[in-house]
Design a protein that fits this description.
Layout: E1 2-6, E2 14-17, E3 28-36, H1 39-46, E4 59-60, E5 64-72, E6 84-87, H2 98-101, E7 116-117, E8 120-121, E9 128-131, E10 137-139, H3 145-148, H4 154-162, E11 174-178, H5 184-194, E12 198-203, H6 206-214, E13 219-222, H7 227-234, E14 240-245, H8 250-259, E15 260-268, E16 288-291, H9 297-308, E17 316-320, H10 324-332, E18 339-343, H11 349-352, E19 358-360
Parallel strand pairs: 7-8, 11-12, 11-14, 12-13, 14-15, 15-16, 17-18, 17-19
Antiparallel strand pairs: 1-2, 1-4, 3-5, 3-9, 3-18, 5-6, 6-10
Helix pairs in contact: 4-5, 7-8
């Protein structure tokens, strides 16, 4: 089968012919319906060879995966051939510690480094993917698996950052989402549905701010030096009770802290490489600063069910797997509208299913 792979560290990915996987004991082969693109992929590509230790390239990219059970290994009893599933990417989790047993595999106490499909393991940018344990599969029922693919990272990353903050987001307070792209649009919807707070979206793109209003933001603010002041004006000087930074560069983190209220919470999910001073006089009194990485199986179940019930809109830019290079270029150049998802050509047209919140990306001839 043809797979889109990182062949060597710090080189452009390329297509390679690789054998189709076969399920061993406890394993499951999933026929991929959709495999999403993520900013993390660019980080994976940029890593030096020494970073990979025992997990050296080549490996297939793609950690946002959904599809159908194609092959079941001995000992797997809870799934059947043809079941539609989403894949939890926390493959480095132990499955035995308190947090894993609580469905928070992303916070596994014994996870030594970040490893996932497409991050050291063969991922979903291929017709089939081998899932090492059935516990990483979440049934999605009749949900379109192409639309479900981004839920496995973009969806649960923002949900996992927001959920623990809910008790402190009181009715009438303000919650801010900085960066309303592939992650931020989910965050806007979660905050609208789960809280009684005013939801403010911040972005440098007028088009994305308009989209944020369509997806549930109450107010929008353009990024820039005056963004924090505008947020404070909207809140009568109080500031935001909760700020979610989906970008994570110096400028957005500075805006986040400047807009934060006393005893507010700043959650960082954007891995932009930025930082802020953690100083007694530079962080609001009582404020909490936290990072949040991906999500566990329980969060994925909840987000899948919210989507199935029509409470969460998923905006997907669909590309054939053969157009992977074009999709990554569109991503890097800011041409995407939603979350880009690659679809292997082994899919039948009837499998793809209509999705009102998706579009087929225009791919130039010859790509």
């Amino acid at each position: 089968m043809l797979a889109y792979r990182l062949v060597q560290a710090q080189t452009r990915p390329e297509f390679q012919e690789v054998p189709e996987p076969h399920a061993g004991p406890g394993q499951v082969v999933v026929r991929v319906a959709g495999s999403g693109l993520c900013h993390t992929d660019f980080t994976v590509i940029s890593r030096e060879r020494s970073y990979w230790t025992d997990d050296q390239p080549p490996f297939t990219l793609g950690h946002e995966i959904a599809g159908w059970v194609e092959q079941i290994g001995t000992g797997v009893t809870k799934f059947h051939l043809g079941d539609a599933v989403a894949v939890n990417p926390s493959w480095a989790s132990c499955g035995r510690c308190h947090l894993c047993r609580s469905g928070e595999e992303n916070h596994c106490l014994y996870q030594q480094t970040i490893r996932a499909p497409g991050v050291g393991y063969d991922g979903g940018h291929a017709p089939y993917v081998l899932v090492p344990e059935a516990r990483f599969l979440v049934p999605i029922g009749d949900l379109d698996p192409v639309a479900a693919a981004p839920l496995t990272d973009a969806g649960i990353t923002t949900y996992t950052a927001i959920k623990p903050a809910l008790p402190s987001i009181w009715p009438g307070s303000t919650a801010v989402v900085i960066g309303v792209g592939g992650l931020g649009l989910y965050a806007v919807q979660f905050l609208r549905h789960l809280t009684g707070a005013r939801v403010v979206a911040v972005d440098s793109s007028e088009a994305r701010l308009k989209l944020a209003l369509e997806y549930g933001a109450d107010e929008v603010v353009s990024s820039g030096a005056d963004a924090a002041n505008q947020i404070r004006e909207l809140t009568g000087g109080v500031g935001a009770t909760f700020v979610l930074d989906c970008v994570g560069v110096n400028a957005t983190l500075a805006t986040a802290v400047a807009a934060l209220s006393w005893r507010g919470r700043l959650a960082l999910v954007g891995a932009g490489g930025g930082s802020i001073p953690f100083d007694f006089f530079k962080v609001p009194p009582g404020a909490q600063l936290m990072t949040s990485l991906n999500g566990g199986s329980v969060a994925l179940m909840e987000v899948v069910e919210m989507t199935a019930l029509g409470r969460l809109k998923v905006l997907v830019d669909r590309y054939p797997l053969s157009a992977a290079k074009q999709a990554y270029d569109d991503f890097e150049q800011g041409r995407l509208v939603g979350r880009a998802v690659l679809m292997p050509e082994t899919m039948k047209d009837t499998d793809r299913g209509p999705t009102t919140s998706s579009r087929i990306a225009a791919v130039p001839a010859g790509v």
